[in-house]
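Protein: Choline transporter-like protein
Species: Amazona collaria
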Amino acid sequence: IVVGNETTYSDGQGQTRNVTDLLEGAKKANVVLEARQLAMKIFEDYTVSWYWIIIGLVIAMVASLIFIVLLRFLAGIMVWVMIVMVILVLGYGIFHCYLEYAKLKGEEGSDISLADLGFQTDLRVYLHLRQTWLAFMIILSILEVLILLLLIFLRKRILIAIALIREASRAIGHIMTSLLFPLCTFFLLCLCIAYWASTAVFLSTSNEAVYKVFNESACPFAGQTCAPETFNASNVTKQCPDAQCLFAFYGGETSYHRYLIALQFFNLFMFFWLVNFVIALGQVTLAGAFASYYWAFKKPEDIPAFPLFSAFGRALRYHTGSLAFGSLILAIVQVIRVVLEYLDHRLKAAENKVAKFILGCLKCCFWCLEKFLKFLNRNAYIMVAIYGTNFCTSARNAFFLLMRNIIRVAVLDKVTDFLLFLGKLLVVGSVGILAFFFFTHRIKLVQDTAPSLNYYWVPILTVIVGSYLIAHGFFSVYGMCVDTLFLCFCEDLERNDGSPERPYLMSPELSGILLKGTLEPSQSTDSQG
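Structure follows.
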């Protein structure tokens, strides 16, 4: 590649550059143009498929609601049906990937590796490669084997987890409004996102147009800022007749413009704080409602008339400070993680391996810290809802209560979380498969109704992500209910002994399985000691 039979050229600013720099610039410009074309095609796909996407999300909502209602009455059967269906859905995915892999055998260009192909804006190209379907098949097979192994090793604990889910179903059955509470949390989160986005846009567009003096010949004013309105009447044109006042960039040279990035970070910090506060408010409200069910001596006679609204009012009136403090700690850690990602992005071109290693270690540590704080905050908010203590006291009591019951936490509570995750996976997988067959025109009844798309994966991925968020909203109520009942169960075991003077407040059905699975081993150990 040459410019005028030369491998170097002048860039017009007095510098000599290599033609490879020109080639790299052309490649980057081509990537920008291809990305713009990709964005336009994606936008076109959304314009012709948005109503079908909404229908898919409505189907996901109805499926999640039906699943939750059935779980209320048929908890044991639904859990096993859910396990079998998840295994079958993953099995079908493996079978479909194998069919596509075998069908591409012998076709021209199908044996090209992903590394040789590189990044392509038209993602349909990857579906014509055997290696793509082989990778999908391997990933689904690993996931299938992991789920089967977990089910084999945890088969006895699944029965106990089903009892806890059945008890959670009873609690939700007495507090049906809890299923609609995620809509309130979602609305508040939308307000937080809107506030952050509008503030970020205002900050990013608050820059001013900066004009500077440009001159082809030597000029003492070259590079200085200027005002286009008064430039022709200034002394610059008298000393430098060919000078021009041209637009340079958007920005500013005031203190406000110099610290604009700091204001953006502060806006991001406030966004994290508000989002964590809204999530904490939802957790305390649900925990307060389900705790009132557990600690009712006679169920459902002793349950308050409006437990969800009562818990919401208590959270706003008495626990706002605890929620704000817990959210603040989590927001600080999240902002530190963002700063580390920003530094990692800025230091990508650096060759200092020690700095990269330290930065990687810090990112890993703060990721673990954030996960631990989310777990601790969740249980601390449950203790806040039960006892009304401040955040620090509740976090300490929750932590030591969980440590005293670490085996139950690791086995029982996490098995229940795993079963609820399978429920979300079932809803998302079913709706995703339905969307795949619809948008790829493989359903004969509606083959002519499906829109023609540039990339059929655009609405499919949108439906899958939206279905997961919807399913997560419904199943998060179950998750919070299970965590609250489990913590109340551990507290009940320490406060009471089952005697007539201090009877257990758990339901007879729950005590029949949980006490059999958790107390008898400890009692036999004590008797042997």
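Remarks: Residues 517-529 have pLDDT under 50 and may be disordered.
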